[in-house]
From TrEMBL:
Family: Belongs to the sigma-70 factor family. ECF subfamily.
One Pfam family per UniProt: Sigma70_r2
Annotated signal sequence range: none
InterPro entries: RNA_pol_sigma-24-rel, RNA_pol_sigma-70-like, RNA_pol_sigma-70_dom, RNA_pol_sigma70_ECF_CS, RNA_pol_sigma70_r2, RNA_pol_sigma70_r4_t2, RNA_pol_sigma_r2, RNA_pol_sigma_r3/r4-like
Record key words, sorted: DNA-binding, Sigma factor, Transcription, Transcription regulation
Keyword ATP-binding: no
Residues annotated as domain RNA polymerase sigma-70 region: 10-74
Organism: Methylophilus aquaticus
Domain RNA polymerase sigma factor 70 region 4 type: 120-169
Protein's UniProt name: RNA polymerase sigma factor
Length: 180
């Protein structure tokens, strides 16, 4: 059964928007990349139906999101990459550089309601992070991209990527321990 490109927005628009919004955390940017995705798909109809239209469109969308993230990284001053001017990550470690108090083990919530509540808190904590840190955390720990690939996408050094990922994880840890 052939899919009609004119039906893609109605059939897949909400899914694509939610996918983009979860990664970009900005409504306008999410709307823009979904529009760019649909335009690219219509202008270059290489869809061979070897996969579903949603899978194909999501693949295009991922590239549009990466382009958007690259643009953000290039245009954001390094000073905005800090979680908080007053944030002191040293409080997590002792004089020898080891954990002062080991992170709590987070059990995987079995109950659907508990899991939904946890994901809501996690999203709120991610929303509190600077956009770049949330993006690199999502790419590495949610989308499971390799560090080399993230560095190419964001056009940053490996060291910078690890520092940003460390700051994102520490910020999330602190937020989750306070709110979860």
């Amino acid at each position: 059964m052939k899919t009609n490109p004119h039906d893609w927005l109605n059939e897949h628009g909400d899914y694509l928007y939610r996918f983009a919004l979860a990664r970009l955390r900005d409504q306008h940017q999410a709307e823009d990349v979904v529009q760019e995705t649909l335009l690219a798909a219509i202008k270059n109809p290489n869809f061979s139906e070897q996969s579903s239209a949603r899978t194909w469109l999501t693949g295009i969308l991922k590239h549009k999101i990466i382009d958007c993230m690259r643009k953000q990284v290039r245009e954001t001053p390094a000073s905005q990459l800090m979680i908080d001017e007053d944030a002191n990550m040293d409080e997590f470690f002792d004089e020898t550089g080891h954990w002062a108090e080991k992170p709590q083990a987070w059990d995987v919530p079995q109950d659907a309601l508990q899991q939904k509540q946890f994901l809501k808190i996690l999203q709120q904590c991610m929303d509190r992070l600077p956009q770049k840190l949330a993006a690199i955390f999502a790419m590495r720990d949610v989308d499971e991209m390799e560090n080399d690939e993230i560095c190419k996408v964001l056009e940053i050094t490996t060291t910078n990527a690890w520092v940003m990922l460390y700051r994102a994880r520490m910020g999330l840890r602190k937020c989750l321990e306070m709110h979860w």
